[in-house]
Amino acid sequence: MSPLPPQVLSPLDGRYQAAVTELGEHLSEAGLNRARVKVEVEWLITLTDRSLFGSIPLTADQKAGLRALVIDFGQAEIDELATLEAVTRHDVKAVEYLVRRRLVPLGLESISELTHFAATSEDINNLAYALTVSEAVREVWLPKLRALIGALRTLAGEYRADAMLARTHGQPATPTTMGKELAVFVYRLERIQKQIEANEYLGKFSGATGTFAAHVAADPAVDWPAVSREFVEGLGLGWNPLTTQIESHDWQAELYGKVSHANRVLHNLATDIWTYISIGYFRQVPQAGATGSSTMPHKINPIRFENAEANLELSSALLDSLAATLVTSRLQRDLTDSTTQRNIGVGFGHSLLALDNLVRGLGEIDLDRELLAHDLDTNWEILGEAIQTVIRAEVSSGRSTIADPYALLKELTRGKRINRADLVAFVQELEIGDTAKARLLELTPAGYVGLAEPLVDYLG
Predict the structure, then answer these.
(1) Which of 175, 254, 243, 250 is nearest to 211 (CA)?
(2) pLDDT per position as a tens digit, 56-69
(3) What gap in Å lies between CA 126 and CA 230, rounded to an integer?
(4) Nearest residue to 442 via CA among 370, 390, 394, 375
(5) Per DSSP, what are the bridge partners of residue 176?
(6) Average pLDDT for residues 149-163, to the nearest whole number?
(7) Do 349 and 312 contact (CB within 8 A), yes or no?
(8) What is the pLDDT of residues 264-315, one digit of tens each?
(9) Which CATH class is domain 17-121?
């Protein structure tokens, strides 16, 4: 790969290009223009298939030749479009002229006037964006999310029985297992993943104000809504019958809201893993040749998770803005969406970069089981919850007359460190049934994890 020019403005196109380059195949200006060419080509084929306006159906070879304009779209077309747009001052008109030019060597000059027939630029644009966004999500972003979820699933299974001290409000709390905590994130992310996979991608093709006026003027006998629906659905999109000049962008707002939600859950994951690293529960595995600090040789900084945090915040900020603004268009059309939609790739790019860092980061950590065991063994006071709950059950069952079990344990444990001997002595003096007392005397912090291990199985 040739070096990038030093004046590249976005870090996604500079420093981080390698991690997001696949998105550029879809959500770049070139990707948008390739999709525009596809829409223009498929509209030509749709019109000629119906023999409209004196045309005749194209042969299989002629259709293949037209579709090759999309398949072979490359630097020559990118450069030519730039030249055309410098004159037209209109990006979609430049695409129309490009397609018209390409009809000549294909021997299809006779259908030249059907290029962009009865279409407004937004008919082309809305379908092109729906195509590029759906492809980017399904072929690039979702596979990376699935890879991250897969890595978390593996770790959840590996650590399902590894008891650790929980920290509610940052304070020692009822133990859990590392596997169960990671399974929580798997469950959350898989729910959102399914919602994103089910998101609609809608399109319209109904003219300057969504009324098919030009179409009907050209031929009032044609069922233009039926033609439009067949065309849009033939592109693999859902058909929106009621629009202004623009497709209303509601599907985009829904999608970006869901992706932003995923970003925030991922942000929670990044901050939790960072915290587990900071307290030593996870060790970072040294990477050959890597430097953690420019001055402190011993350090391994959790940069994967910090980088992910920052990029998730940037992504959600942009996607939230898109979701909020794209649903509004003054009356039948304004151009505010023209600029905003060109930043869709930036929003997804920062999210994709974060996912890449999270996947890499999860592969560079290891659980410190000795520290987990040490923390549990130095926090016996967390068993106060178990003891007061058992006493309450005994009182309710008529085997104890202890008043206010919670207050009793609060006096023993709140703000204090106690050890096993302290708890054993306390339990032995309790007025409770022998079976309950024996169960409490056997309890340890490491064993007080409830159903944490089998709960992981709910992931399926």
Answers:
(1) 243
(2) 999 999 999 999 99
(3) 16
(4) 390
(5) 164
(6) 98
(7) no
(8) 999 999 999 999 999 999 999 877 667 666 666 676 789 999 999 999 999 9
(9) mainly alpha
252: left (phi over 0), alpha (psi -120 to 50) or beta: alpha
The Cα-based distances of 158 to 19, 220, 268 in angstroms read: 28, 67, 21
- How far is it, in rounded angstroms, from Cα 443 to Cα 355? 40
Which CATH number is 132-288+297-365's, of 1.20.200.10, 3.30.750.24, 3.90.226.10, 2.60.40.3710? 1.20.200.10
Residue 304: both structure tokens together: 């994967």
Element (H, E) at 217: helix 213-218
Question: Is the distance from CB of 106 to CB of 74 less than 8 angstroms?
Answer: no
Both ends of the chain: CA-CA distance in Å? 43
Count CB-CB contacts under 10 A for residue 299: 11
The rounded distance, in Å, linking the Cα atoms of 277 and 318 is 29
The domain locations on the chain are 17-121, 132-288+297-365, 378-459
As to burial, measured by CB atoms within 10 angstroms (0-12 exposed, 13-18 middle, 19+ buried), residue 250 is middle
Q: Name every residue whose Cβ is closer than 8 Å to that of residue 222 and which is 6 or more positions away in sequence.
A: 50, 52, 215
Distance CA 444, CA 375 (A): 12
pLDDT digits (tens, 9 = 90+) for 196-252: 999 999 999 999 999 999 999 999 999 999 999 999 999 999 999 999 999 999 999
At 59, which amino acid appears? Answer: T
Q: pLDDT tens digits, residue range 373-406?
A: 999 999 999 999 999 999 999 999 999 999 999 8
For 378-459, CATH number? 1.10.40.30
| Tokens 């970069």, located at residue | 353
Residues taking part in catalysis: 169, 293
Whole-number Cα distances in Å, 39 to 71, 125, 226, 311, 413: 13, 9, 17, 33, 70
Full-model pTM: 0.93
Q: What is the token pair recorded at 159? A: 């650590």
